[in-house]
Amino acid sequence: MEPSPPTTVAETRHGLQGRVALVTGGGTGIGRASAIALAQAGAAAVIVTGRRVDVIEEAAARVRDAGSESLAIAADFTRPAEVERVIGAVVARFGRLDIAFNNAGYQEPRANLADQDDATFDRVFDTNVRALFHGMRLEIRAMLAQGAGGVIINNASVSGTRNANPGLALYSASKAAVISLTRSAAMEYAPQGIRINAVSPGRVVTDMMLRSGIADMSQVAAGLPLRRMGQAAEVANAVAWLASDASSFVVGHVLAADGGFLAG
């Protein structure tokens, strides 16, 4: 029997009315689905960033179709000046930043550790850790300046907790760093009203997953308790919940949207 489609955020209405959200790496996959989900949940505006102008503009159009104002801003968050430009543009246009989903990520071509090179290491850690550091730093400063708190959600991975896929050591190590940064920052800024959490996707069908070198997706799905792969919209629902007041007592948490992978 085919599984029922996931309930959408539009149906659950987590209630983000009036809030301004930023999604990095928002042109494809989980980022794109989350930008749309935040709009469906009532966000006043959802700003989508990424390196590819065509895909972020298409995602922004989908956000507008879902009822929110949207901007597509091309940017590379590994460069501090570009992060400052984006955050500055958001605050100048909307007067505030309430929600940030730091989603941009990169997974190396599959190879054993001794066969990886410095350039690959730099790209993985620049994208997954350095860009996250730059983003969180400026997002936190903006939220502190407005004096009304905010919510930051980071995209981690089950691979940061348990790596059952040899050949992805750099990606796994970078996602472990994401989890540690999330928890540390959450403890530092919770007293100022900024809630920081992470979502930890498992085996989800995205372009990154399809490029990962897995030969048989059905075999991967069969190994999960739900016996199916996840969909980007299911992770997006978790992101929208973490962004909302429904999760108001959740701080420093890593929410596994993984079909039971970590429990198995």
Descriptive report:
- By secondary structure, the protein is α/β, with parallel strands linked by helices.
- The protein has a single domain, classed as NAD(P)-binding Rossmann-like Domain (Rossmann fold), CATH 3.40.50.720.
- The strands form two sheets. Strands 3-2-1-4-5-6-9 form a seven-stranded parallel β-sheet, sandwiched between helices.
- α4 runs parallel beside α5 and α5 packs parallel to α6.
- The longest helix is centred in the middle third of the chain and has 29 residues.
Q: Descriptors for this entry?
A:
264 residues; alpha/beta; Rossmann fold; two-stranded parallel sheet; 16% strand
What layout of secondary structure does this protein have?
Blueprint: H1 9-12, E1 20-23, H2 29-40, E2 45-50, H3 53-65, E3 69-74, H4 80-94, E4 99-102, H5 118-146, E5 150-155, H6 169-189, E6 194-201, E7 204-205, H7 207-210, H8 217-222, E8 230-231, H9 232-243, E9 254-257
Parallel strand pairs: 1-2, 1-4, 2-3, 4-5, 5-6, 6-9, 7-8
Helix pairs in contact: 2-3, 2-9, 4-5, 5-6
Short description:
The protein is of the alpha/beta class. Helices cover 44% and strands 16% of the residues. It is globular and about 45 Å long.
First-to-last CA distance: 22 Å
Kindly estimate the percentage of residues that lie in beta strands according to DSSP.
15-25%
CATH architectural name: 3-Layer(aba) Sandwich
Secondary structure tally, helices: 9
Number of domains: 1
Mean pLDDT level? 91
CATH class: Alpha Beta
Q: Could you tell me the number of beta strands?
A: 9
The CATH homologous superfamily is named NAD(P)-binding Rossmann-like Domain
What level of helicity do the residues show?
A: 40-55%
* Spatial arrangement of strands, main beta sheet: 3-2-1-4-5-6-9
Please trace the helix and strand order, writing H or E for each element: HEHEHEHEHEHEEHHEHE
Largest sheet: 7 strands, parallel
